[in-house]
Amino acid sequence: MWYVYILRSTEYPEREYVGFTADLRKRLLDHNSGKSAHTLKYAPWDLIWYCAFGDKLQALDFENYLKSHSGRAFSKKRLVPSRQ
Fold it and tell me: What is the pLDDT of residues 43-72, one digit of tens each?
């Protein structure tokens, strides 16, 4: 399985990160232990949404969509809970 996921920074809840992986648990640990330069500054992270795909290309396409302007609007309206 392939996973597309959305993380939210615990310290900076306005910061979210969209990613893609085959091992969701390991990837979340990597983000929270500083192994990802892109997310290090805003760690620790909470997993707030994910979706599993059987097809890698379909998952990559959806990740790219969620990173687009319309994809961010879609995720905020339909996928993730509102920020506290």
Answer: 999 999 999 999 999 999 999 999 999 999
Percent of the chain with pLDDT over 70: 98
Residues 52 and 33: their CA atoms lie apart, in Å, by 23
Tokens 């290090």, residue located: 40
Give 33-40's long-range contacts (Cβ < 8 A, gap of 24+). 39/7
- Inter-residue contact 4 to 64 (CB < 8 Å): no
Three-state secondary structure readout of the chain: CEEEEEEEECCCCCCEEEEEECCHHHHHHHHHCCCCCCCHHHCCEEEEEEEEECCHHHHHHHHHHHCCHHHHHHHHHHHCCCCC
Q: Which CATH superfamily is domain 2-79 in?
A: GIY-YIG endonuclease (3.40.1440.10)
